[in-house]
Every structure is written in structure tokens, then in C-alpha cells.
Task: structure prediction
Amino acid sequence: MSISLSVHSGNSIGFKILKYLKMKKTLLFSVIFIVFLSQMGYNQQQISLKAAYKKDFLIGTALGAEHIHERNEVANHLIKKEFNAITPENHMKSGLIHPEWGRYDFDIADKYVAYGKKNGMYVVGHTLVWHSQLPKFATQLQNVDSIRSFMTEHIKTVASRYAGQINSWDVVNEALNEDGTMRKSIFLKLGEGYIKEAFDLAAKIDSKAELYYNDYNIEQPAKRKGAIGIIKKLQASGSKINGVGIQGHWSINTLNLQEIEDAIIEFSNLGVKVAFTELDLTVLPNPWDLKGADINQNFEGNPQMNPYINGLPDSVGVVLAEKYEQLFKLFLKHKDKISRVTFWGVNDGHSWLNGFPIRNRTNYPLLFDRNFQPKLAYQSVINLKK
Ligand code: XIL
Result:
């Protein structure tokens, strides 16, 4: 009796719990509603990167399987709204598309190409010849004949499957060392001429695609010289090369605009287009910048190396925005030489820089945050066109 009475009385514990739960529910709904409204506010804006830069150069992003399969409606909406060029982050690399000798897995690459076509986007093929992310069988090849037959069969099969549907191929990726000499990859066992072989084969199989040489750090003088050498040799021997891709994996702490400008001008003087193919700006410390750091040291789980796990401090967000603004100002200054600027990922949560060069960090290198909301850096890039 006393129990049933207390349940019905206004001051009972049961009633208080009910009231508390109701308050919590109302609060939760309010928060969801506010997030929804701010999302709507951004979504309903007509402004977008691709519209703002329409007359200047293409604006691209790299897609993972989750984007190609259109799994997340918010991501999907953002990709279509903001970008007019796409690159497959992984699914055209030989390790994934060509897992065993003579066996290809085209499933996701086919869907990627179809996604680009359906949405009227510029479709990049990345990449035909690269020493990384090779299938295991290819890393074990020893003799020159089998390496040549792997490379040529691979290019023939992949380039012909998508012939006429790829706007540009990164034909060769990362063939250079930092000092501008040729990287000792398995392909170099064919001699330096492997680059010409690859370009000529790609040109023969897909005559419509533009052909690019792609690499990181080639804005830096020594490596830039090496890239200029590759381009000049191709040109001198009558090969087709349309452009050079500067990857653009940079840092807010060490961004060197002068080198980037020199590279744009020097590459363009050779008569090729310049694309920024994999742009991101890390905000995290780089272990190899630390004086006396032993590179064999394990930095994973070291809080000094992962300082922003609870969010990006406003002060760092401002620096990121400034760096992006300076970069895009430079890109606009040379827009007649630049074909495309592609970000390496859709939003911060998706970026490979959460796992490289140290695993399990929280990085903030792109223009959209983990909730797909535009960051201050997005505004600064857009504002340059207002
Ligand atoms: C990266 C991808 O983003 C990661 O998901 C993958 O684990 C490793 O490769 N240069 C390139 C890109 O040309 O293909 C690389 O992409 C980043 C460096």
C-alpha cells in the first residue's frame, strides 16, 4: 500500500526519475534539432568549392569504398555538392585491383568510374605503376622478363578496361628519391626507360586520357630537378605527357610557398599542366622533425605526438585556415597553369593522416570536420573568391 501511494505522489523517487528522464529526452531532442538546423543551414547554402573555383581549376577529393558505395548520405551529399573531380584513394592500386597473377578484381573500381560518370565528374585513374601497395606476388618477382610482363600486362588490362572513361591517369607514381635520383623500385630493374614504356603503353591503350607523372616533395629543388628530367626525357623521345602531379602532403608548420611557386612555374615552362593531386595539411607534430629522435622509437600512444584528441584548439584552426588561404591565393595567381586541386580525403575523420606516419592519432588536415561541417579553413578558401 505504502509503495503504490509513493509511486503516485508527486514527490516520490519514481516520479522524480520519470521527470528527470523526460528532461533529458527534451534536452537530447533539442541538441539533435540544433545540429540538424546547422546542417540544413550549410546544406542550403548555394556556395560550394567547385562553384567558387569553376573558372579557375577543378576541385577534387579522394574516395574510399564507403563513398563509392554511397553508404553515408551526408558524405554523399557533400561530395556531390563540393567536388567536380574524384580520385580512388586505394581501389585502382595494383595490390587491390590485381591481387594475383592474371586475376583482377574490378568490382569497386568499376563502381568508382560509374559514380564519376553518373555525377558528371572528372575521373582520375590512380595509379598504373607504383612501388607501394603492390600485390604480394609482384614483390617477389626477380627476373627482368617477369617484371616487364607484370608491368605491361597490368597496364594493358587496367587501362583498356576503362579506356575512354578516365580523364587522366597517374601513369607513374613516386619514381624518385629525395635527391632527385631514380628510386630503386622493382621497376627500375627494367632500366630508367620503364617510365617511357609505361607512358607509351598507356597512350596507346587509352588515347583519350591525359597522362601525368605524380610524386610528393617534387616542389623541393633537388627532387624537382629529377621530375623535370623525367618530363624532358619523355618529351624528347616523343612520348605523350600532359601533366605533373604535385601530391601536396604538407604541414602547417613547414609549408614553403616559395618552393611551390617555383615548381609551378618551372613545370609549366616545360609545357605540361600542373595539378595538386593529394592535398592535405597536417597539424600534428612530425616525429622526424624532433631533434635526436630515434626513428625506431615507437611514437604510438605518446601524448606529445597526439595533442588534440579532444578537438582542434581554435588557435590551430586559425593557423590552418591561414595556410590554406595562402596556398589558394598562390594557386589563383597561377590558375592558368593549374588544372586541378584535389584534397586527399573528404573530411578529417576519413584522412589517412590519422594513421600516418603514426597510427591512431587525431588529425585535422582537411576543410571539413568529422561531422562533415565546413571548418574555418573552408571559409577562408571560399572567401578568396567572394
Ligand atoms: C594512401 C591512402 O590514403 C591510404 O589509405 C593507404 O593506406 C596508403 O596510401 N601517396 C599516394 C597515395 O600516391 O596513393 C597514398 O594514399 C598517399 C601517398
